TrEMBL record:
It comes from Durusdinium trenchii. It holds the Pfam family MT. Coiled coil: none annotated. Residues 151-371 form the Dynein heavy chain ATP-binding dynein motor region domain. Residues 30-122 form the Dynein heavy chain coiled coil stalk domain. This is Dynein heavy chain. InterPro entries: AAA_9, DHC, Dynein_HC_stalk, P-loop_NTPase.
Amino acid sequence: MKDTERRPRVNALLSMNQDFFIKSQRGCKADCAELDQQLTDAFTEKETMERQAASCVSKLNTAQRLVSGLADENERWANTVVDLRDLSLRLIGNCMLASAFVGYASPFSARLRQDLWQQVWTADLKQREIPMTNGIDPLTVLASDADVAGWMNEGLPADRVSVENASVVTSCSRWPLLVDPQQQGARWIKQRIGEELTVIQLSNSKWLDKVIFCVQTGSQLLIEALQDEIDAILEPLLSRAVIKRGRGPMFLKLGPDEIEYDSKFQLYLQSKLPNPHFRPEVSAQCTVVNFIVTPEGLEEQILALVVNCEKPQLEEEKQILVRRQNEFKVILSRLEDELLSQLSAADPDTILDNIPLIEGLEKTKHTSREIALQVAEAEKTEVEINHSRELYRSVASEGSMLFFLVVELSTVQHMYQYSLDAFNTFLQKAIDRTQVRRTRLALTLQVFRRCIAERDIPTRPGFQETDDVKERTERLIASIRLTIFRWVCH
């Protein structure tokens, strides 16, 4: 066959082979691309599964941390839920008793208060079949342990009457009027509010300008040393005769002019008279609170004074311990509130992803455990300190009895008027005089023993310094009696 005839056939075969190779190549490339895509998809799916597995493990760990953090609270919260359900049925009677206590019991003494809410009001609520908690104490309705601890850190005496008074002052809707001859209530309010409190007396010059300024700026005002008759210009303020025009600000007519009234304004009134005779309108406009010192409260104060003079380190430890325990109660209450607030605000669907919440929960629980341990240790230490302080209880009881005995002299003759500050001054003098005598005796014994040691004279086995606590308390009582007697009879 000639080349001319063979060449077209060869070209045709070459073209066919080339087309076949191109098609095969394209098919291989397509298969390779498909395989590459499958491999990529497989790697992507693998990474996705690994991320999901890691996320599941992380959520599992987070769930374990969350469950572990809340495990300790489960039993307490379960009991709290039961108590709240029971309280919801008995809340009406509890609130009625607490409201009556705030509105009507505060002017009276401790015995009358107790008779009112225990014998009269509680019996009346039960007779009317109003649901209430058995053995309910109005103080538990008005204040929590954290509230009471905070008040004590602010200088409130620790006796029950003072705590009741503080709960009334912080709960009443009317202006509190303190019957406070010993000024314990005024001192507590000043320390509680601090520099934000404006203190005036109606005998001061330009006192009305300060009242107007406080009303307009929403400040807190304490008017001290009120007499039986309160200046009539304060009548609109005491009765809260506020005028409101439309949606604008509120006004109060104080004196000849109308002034703008800020709803944040808070007024405290205080009288140093032991038995003031206010007009009936004042008792209706204000909540009268009897802050007169009680024998129990004064005994605790005198005990602190005596121990501070006799064993200053012991009393300092006591004060630090009480302050720390009160702070612990406040911190624990705040931590519990923060924990519940965080849990209630968390989204249930994403709570396991909320790492700051879990870390905050763990930190809160860790702090709570540390505080609980410190509270347990502090309670043990407090028992030991109280045992040492109780050795001087007889001196404190004697001092409290003498003060109320001296106060009763005013019923014999009105000229016998004695303040607690003056009594404490002479009480301190009596302790100091006894301290001087004890020091001289100790020096004498020390010199005597030194002379015996130098001359090598044997001493009797039973010889010791007569500085024991029992003899010391007897001498303190005798010195206090003599000092107060001389003061009164001077």
